[in-house]
Structures are given as C-alpha cells and as structure tokens.
Amino acid sequence: MHIAYATGLLLARRALAKLKLDEKYEGVTEPNGEFSIVEPVEGEARPFKVYLDVGTRRTTTGARIFGCMKGASDGGLYIPHNEKRFPGYDADSKELDSEVLRNYIFGEHVAEYMRMLEDVRRLSTFYLGIILNCHFLYRKIQRDTQPNSQN
Predict the structure, then answer these.
(1) Is 88 helix (H, G, I), strand (E, B) or coil?
(2) Domain map of the chain by residue range?
(3) Which end of the chain has the smaller Cβ count within 10 Å, N or C?
(4) Is the predicted pLDDT of residue 151 greater than 60, yes or no?
C-alpha cells in the first residue's frame, strides 16, 4: 500500500499544481493514518473533486487502489469515500485503527515481512548445517559399520 499511497500523493500534488490549487489545498502534511476528507476553504475555489471508479473489478479491503485513493485524498484532492476499505478498519466495532493504517502507509508491513524472511534465512542456514552434519555423520556411521570397511 505504501507505493500506491505515494503514487496517489504525487498525482494529487501534480494535478493541483496544474490547476493552481496546490497552495490553497495542501492536504495532509504529515500522514498519520487518520480518516480525513478535504474541506472547502472559505472564500476560495472549491477543492478539485475526483471520483474513484474501479469499473467491474471486485475490490477487497486493503487493496492497492484504496492506498492510491488515500494518497490522492491526503494530497489535497476531494474524493468522497469512507474508511471501510482501509487496512485497520474493524467491521465489528465500525472503527478505523489509524495506527494500523499509518503502518501500512509507511510500509511497516513490508519491513516486518523482510524481518521474517531474514529470520527464516537464518533458521534455514542453521538447519541446513544440522541436516548436512547429520548426513555426513550418517554416511560416516554407514561406512564404519559395513563389514568390508577399511579403517
């Protein structure tokens, strides 16, 4: 989601710069994972309104398209939406855990996966050594216990 968020943020900033609205609608300056929608500034032009159209494709909670939409919304575009499809939304309590969404925006889920892979690599190297040692030990025992073995 973090790459999609950055893409949406870049898209919003460039679109608003072309429309000369980038100074009026800065959007979210520090992403914190909280739900927000761009509000009109009193006495200024209304925010640029955009609709998300996914066509006939099925969407799932946490899909990249919603990361891009969140980035574009945080970048200053007015996109009517709710928080139901963001990572961290709990359908039972009907609340968004902004810390979970913030972690997704900053790529913490990827960092966690990389740490897990590093642990798996360490474990696999460790166990590979044990397996190889067992294999060589087994071969040595097999050689030593054969009747025609020459010591």
Answers:
(1) coil
(2) 2-106, 112-151
(3) C
(4) no
